[in-house]
């Protein structure tokens, strides 16, 4: 057995041990398996290998404070290219509303330009979401922060409070546009279509059949057996589109 073969066998065994310890750590920390497909995961492995034997991992303080500050500074540097693009070709401010498990209404603010979309902030808007004037103040603040001269349009949901906020924004800043979200408009259209007698009756039957199957384990197992383990899409209470997707 030559030296090359011995080295290859040693490296194979060392890699298996390292991979086992990495995966054991992932199992213990409940880390999703797909993190291994992240580009930064391989970069981390290579950096550890370049350091060599005896490397100590980051401390709690380094993870929570020191390196977090460094990563924040790096993120701000990455934002600079986007900000330059805002000034050159303009951008769109987008708001995305959702409800968490505590029934709080949260709004995400994002800025989109030709270089991509940046997440800016998420706020608890439970106390202001029903008031058009309050939402106007919130959107107006973001226009000011991004730079009025850089903003072409503000995109929001089509709720009545956003409609009022959008109109007030256009009055104050005539050069920009308020644009209702196309996906939300389609969702509202599907809601109205779902109120038509024939469609409503069909939807109710589909939802009832779905619930009937999933509430009976024997029937559910039989369905999976004859459909190759396929599942029925379970319609949500709020997104109206999912009730139509249930048919497919």
UniProtKB/TrEMBL annotation:
Q: InterPro entries this protein is in?
A: DUF659 (IPR007021), RNaseH-like_sf (IPR012337)
- Domain (DUF659) ranges: 58-206
> Per its UniProt record, what SUPFAM superfamilies does this chain match?
Ribonuclease H-like
Task: Give the top-rank taxon of the lineage listed in the UniProt record for this protein.
Answer: Eukaryota
Q: Which PANTHER family match?
A: OS05G0256350 PROTEIN, OSJNBA0013A04.12 PROTEIN
The protein in question is named DUF659 domain-containing protein
Q: Lineage of the source organism?
A: Eukaryota, Viridiplantae, Streptophyta, Embryophyta, Tracheophyta
């Amino acid at each position: 057995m030559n030296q090359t073969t011995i080295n290859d066998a040693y490296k194979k065994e060392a890699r298996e041990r390292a991979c086992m310890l990495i995966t054991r750590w992932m199992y213990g920390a409940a880390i999703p398996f797909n993190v291994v497909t992240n580009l930064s995961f391989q970069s981390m492995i290579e950096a550890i290998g370049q350091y060599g034997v005896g490397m100590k991992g980051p401390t709690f303080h380094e993870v929570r404070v020191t390196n977090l500050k460094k990563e924040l500074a790096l993120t701000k540097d990455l934002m600079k290219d986007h900000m330059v693009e805002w000034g050159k070709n303009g951008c769109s401010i987008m708001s995305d509303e959702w409800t968490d498990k505590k029934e709080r209404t949260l709004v995400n603010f994002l800025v989109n330009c030709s270089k991509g979309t940046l997440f800016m902030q998420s706020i608890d808007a439970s106390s202001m979401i029903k008031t058009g004037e309050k939402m106007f103040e919130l959107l107006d603040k973001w226009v000011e922060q991004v730079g009025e001269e850089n903003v072409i349009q503000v995109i929001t949901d089509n709720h009545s409070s956003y409609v009022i906020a959008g109109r007030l924004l256009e009055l104050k800043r005539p050069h920009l546009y308020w644009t209702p979200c196309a996906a939300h408009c389609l969702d509202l259209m599907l809601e109205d279509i779902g109120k038509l007698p024939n469609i409503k009756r069909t939807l109710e039957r589909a939802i009832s059949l779905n619930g009937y199957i999933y509430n009976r384990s024997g029937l559910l197992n039989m369905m999976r057996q004859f459909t190759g383990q396929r599942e029925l899409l379970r319609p949500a209470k709020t997104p109206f589109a999912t009730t139509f997707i249930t048919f497919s």
